[in-house]
Amino acid sequence: MTESKGAVLVYPRLCVAYFLQFAIWGSWAGALGGYAEVLKMPGWQIGWLYAAIPLGAVISPLFIGPIADRYFAAQKVVSLLHFIGGLCLLGCGFACVTGHASFSLLMTLILGSGICFMPTIALVNSIVIKHSKEGSAPYVFVFGTIGWIVVNLFIAAFLSGAEQPYFFFAGGGAGILLALYSLTLPDTPPKGAPAAGEKNDVFGLGALKLFKDPAFAIFVACAFLASIPACNFFFAFQVTYLTQHGYPSPLALTTLNQFSELFFMSMLPLVIGIIGLKWVLVLGIGAWTLRYFVFIVPTFECAVIALLLHGFCYSFLYVAAYMYADKKAPAELKASVQSLMVFLLLGVGQVLGSQLYGFMRDLPDNAPKIAEMSIVRALNEDEIKQYSSLFVLPEGTPTDFWLNVKKNDTIPMPKWNDVKMTDSVWRYLDLGKTVTDLLKGNEQEQQAVDDLGSLLDTNKDNKISTSELAAAPEKLVLGNTEYTKTDIEKTFRNIANNTVNDFEVSRQDYLAVQAYNWKGILQNPAIFIAVFFVLFLILGKNPDDGKEKQKNEN
Length: 554
Description:
two-stranded antiparallel ribbon; globular; disordered N terminus
């Protein structure tokens, strides 16, 4: 192991750095999509917010990478970039809690964070590789996945998950902490200027000459195009999907992605040795199609399976693609080929993926049938003052005229928790509520205040009937919103499509009318990926195919 003079405990120190590195990204990568729905952002804005990290991957190599490589020690550049990036995330948090979270401001700050964050991955990797024993770097890298898991569980348990913007403070705080901590890492001097004739091919353009080989061109096209509706498309919708289906602690559930990643990453070398890289890539592309079709089935079990498929999908497509490219490229082009794959898969592919989600999310056919509850209410004091100043009423109008005027309005649909979750051990899956209940010691009281089902679903069958609603009080206060029995009944009759007779509304039907048309959002991307699954299945080749023949000819 090479390390600076006097450095001690290098391995655990590198593990801490890598833990914080991906805790920063993980702090908002899942939560942002859910919170953007709280802010009622349109899909195109969500798509651009999720494009920040891949745009950072495209922009930062143009000026940050060359400067860092030539003139400054890696740990010092990491410190400066994380300090700026941490301030950007903290700025997002303060903008949200103070009510100034415009799209333009959030986009500017998150893009700034992405531009600062992306080059630190390569820089931290260089520090880890330089100061680790040969072959031990992967044991450090695994702490990045652990950091992603831990920060999301912490946010879900203590910071209200994706319902509040506090996750930005977790990410910004981790960034500032890593900025300070980086200064204590072993010294990693700059590489200096490139040698004579050496090019800094940050986008892998030198690898374009390999497209003369049809097998390489087919591999790049299939891997790149299949990646568009993959990771960044998925990250943008996962929390919203889980929330709209009423599953407990959506942000915590997303950590199943990373748990499965740990398993499948460890299995990848073994599987490659058995079936070869071509078939690993075939399985990886196909797994994304399978995953989205599983997500379309609206059950908790299918959601868990689809989340657990993430490690399979990511490792067998993205990681296998890098390995395939390395095998296919000649020695003098290996660096360029890797740059090209990163540029396509993590840069352009992810930008297009987030834009695709925004487009699919905004299609009219994919909008919720009932986004909010329609009500008729009396004017409040501010509205009475406004209207009375604008309109001069005829002489003899009753003095209480404005008090009797009604206004059409909308209010949020009340929550309806699953009885299986609230009345059994499954309720502990909701980490935030579990922690709150343990701290306050008032679990039943909290349910009575926040949950529509606990008030109206008297027989605990996850259905509310006319008779159950009739027994309810005229006014119900759930959270910070007051509901009338009349408004709830009107909404339920709308859901049941029954305006005359007795009705019964199930929790599944209640949630379904509030959710996006997830089949419409996911089905076409799944089919799109399936096209390249079939194409690579038929035309793809193992990277070693033809090499022996070429060697003999030479």
